[in-house]
Amino acid sequence: MADKYKDKKTPKNAAPVVTPAASEASYDDVKHEHRLYFNIVKKRYIWFALSLLLLIPGIVSLCTQGLNLSIDYKGGSMFNIQFNEKVTQADINQAMDSVGLTGSVQLTNGDISAIVRTEALDQTKRDELLAAIQKQAGTFDIKNVEEQLVQPAIGNELKSGAMKSLAVASVLILIYVSFRFRFVYAVSSVIALLHDILITLGLFSIFQWEIDAAFIAAILTIFGYSINDTVVIYDRIRENERRMKKKDSFEDMVDKSVWQTMGRSVKTVCTVLIALLAIFLLGGESTRTFSLAMIIGVFFGAYSSICIASQLVVEIKKRTSEDNKKDNPVES
């Protein structure tokens, strides 16, 4: 078998076969491998400016008009209705509109049961709503309707729990990335995560999309997805940093590392976005908030891993090294 391969000679002028996924590939090899190559690191101030353009309007909106919270947070009435036949969300929403109410509808049990959430209702408004649903959506036994009043205090508890969850997740990610890499990598990754969350919250505030309990799950999922994508790039940076020579530029090494993982990042985010778009378009009203938040978070999570987290590492190292040179001038 060995002789079989010895007979096959490589032409003298043939270029060596090098894939950008191999850590040994040179910076020039990576540049030539990608047709759309451009220097991402040198354009990092453009990425920072673009992020600010997205963040500032969202933060202003959060401070002025806030978020459009559902009754899960504000409190309200919840009805669990068992219909005699299958119903549709559109018919129930139309019935709510006819009596001047808004809320959320979740169908269960093969579209025979429905959980209807709306603002807190008095007895008159409650009777109007049930009568409209029975007339426009489907018949049911009013005596068997399960009713529940969600107190605002429960909503405040949900908001408090969400903030604590995000704080704990940020601290644990900071510890994990510091232990696996270095503190500068951890700080950059947490800033990028907060960037993704603030953009998501800002867009929901600007367009006043309603936020329900599933939104918390989406935010925490975005945390996990974004940090996973960032760690993949950090891994490649660490591998390439070990092979750096004194004459090599740290910026070029990071740019090379980003492009070596670019294919993986783009393919992964496109696959996830296709699935999320299918859920958003076909999953019904109950999954719309979750899927919309995930679409925004996953897209900007991939963007921040490439254009924010890794670029912050470069910027922090550059500034700290400049400070060290100022503090320790070389004597002539």
Radius of gyration: 27 Å
What is the helix/strand order? HHHEHEHEEHEHHEHHH
**Largest β-sheet summary:** 4 strands, antiparallel
Query: Average pLDDT value?
Result: 85
User: Count the helices. How many?
Assistant: 11
Number of strands: 6
- Please state roughly what percent of the residues sit in beta strands, choosing from under 5%, 5-15%, 15-25%, 25-35%, 35-45% or over 45%: 5-15%
Output the strand order for the largest sheet: 3-4-2-5
State the end-to-end CA separation: 63 Å
As residue ranges, the low-confidence spans are 1-10, 14-22
Helix content: 55-70%
Structure description:
By secondary structure, the protein is of the alpha+beta class. 65% of the residues lie in helices and 8% in strands. The chain is built from 11 helices and 6 strands. The strands form 2 sheets. Strands 3-4-2-5 form a 4-stranded antiparallel β-sheet. Helix 8 runs antiparallel to helix 9 (214-242), helix 8 (183-206) packs across helix 11 (288-327) and helix 10 (250-282) runs antiparallel to helix 11.
State the gist of this model.
This protein has 11 helices and 6 strands. It is α+β, with helices and mostly antiparallel strands.
